Amino acid sequence: MELIRLNENFNKEFLKVWRNSFLDTQTFEEEFSMRFFSQDDLWNQAYGWIDDGKLISTYLSLDVKVLIRNKEVRAHYIDGIATLPEYRNKGLVFTQMLNDAKKCLSNNIPLMLVDPARDSLYRKFGFEFALNKYATLIPRDFLYETKDYKFNYKISSGFLSKNKKLQCDYKELSNWFWQNSRYNEMKWPKCYEDIKFLDYEVKIVVAYDDNDKPIAYALYNIGKTRMYIKSFRYMNLNGFYAIKNFILNIDNEITSFYFSSIPEDFPLDILISNIWANDRFLSHNRMISRMARIIDFRGLLEKLIVFPPKREISIYVKDDKLESNTGAYIISMDGKVMKEEKIDCEVITTIHDFVPLLTGLKSAEELYYNGKLKVGLNENIQQSNLLIPDCIKELTYILPKSVTYNSDEYLAP
Fold first, then answer.
1. Cβ–Cβ under 8 Å, residues 265 and 107
2. Is there a single domain that holds both residue 14 and residue 160?
3. pLDDT tens, residue by residue, 321-363
4. For the segment 263-283, what is each residue's pLDDT rounded down to a tens digit?
5. Are 17 and 37 in contact (CB under 8 A)?
6. Do 258 and 313 reside in the same domain of the chain?
7. Long-range contact list for 342-345, CB < 8 A, 24+ apart?
8. Which of 230, 232, 258 shows the shortest CA–CA distance to 140?
9. CATH number of residue 356's parent domain
10. Domain range holding 374?
11. Which of 289, 313, 335 represents a domain boundary (last residue)?
12. Can you give the residue ranges of the N-acetyltransferase domain (predicted)?
């Protein structure tokens, strides 16, 4: 078996592997999938395993940029992992991931990202839950009209694939969010960023202020009696209310609204009047939406520290796959991180257990309570905030818990 970079000549074989791996013939035979795989620059990111001239496994490795704690971080996003059933459990994915990790290390790319479709497998390679989002199903009569918030605005809507003006407004807002957002924005390569303009079913509504400047948008499509809102982004409160009013005034045959991607701090309280009525409940679910793998522990930790510690902190990290990460680290009072040869460390952890602390998904206290950050030899950890070790409090201070919402719109097949 040989690992090679693929080209457009593998288009049909690539789709065949996906159909057989995911047991989904319909999705990957739709015209949208064909348009996705016909993009020339997609094949700059495509790899696969060949056995006796036959494509048996696929792997897309994308150069991306992601905002973590409002810091821009280079990363590799892994997608399209598929292996024919008879070739699974042979270490093909692990080998490709290790090659990718080594490539990241040599190119100063400190992070790898993947969606958690097979989280138990990815965790074995050092990935862990990193970012999340919420999905909410709202009955129409739970929404309420805003009467005490007055402002002027304009609305324009249509199919995103057909309206060049709406595409430009969408791009303008996306650029604003990249520069100003408090969430985990991501910059995709062109083949992924532009695919939403090739999906003929996606609609967009854009809100404008008095100066015709775009201030908010929502991506959506309409089912029989339900509006599916894929993304709802706004740069100010006027924009939020403008999109809300558009939703309220949509076709009366729409009986419910499904928001498939909103942050933890999305202001539901100014969108709905109640969460329960007439034996019906608001459905509001948290979903882990991205996993991360730390490639350069020292560099990434130093970059993402929010506040320097009030005293030095020592951490020992174990990495079973990348030995360069294994070792003792000192976080100094100026926020610098140094790797040391031989010292006794206050905190002991693994490379994957540290991921949710680094991104802000979990606090140091949560990880300590669950045995993910170990202090000393005590395995029976008291569940009391009165007994939290000082070093754990310092880690909470320098890496506080935050809203970890991956706001990027993944609209590939």
1. no
2. no
3. 999 999 999 999 999 999 998 789 999 999 999 999 999 999 9
4. 999 999 999 987 776 667 788
5. no
6. no
7. 343/314, 344/314, 345/314, 345/315, 345/316
8. 258
9. 3.30.1050.10
10. 296-398
11. 289
12. 1-150
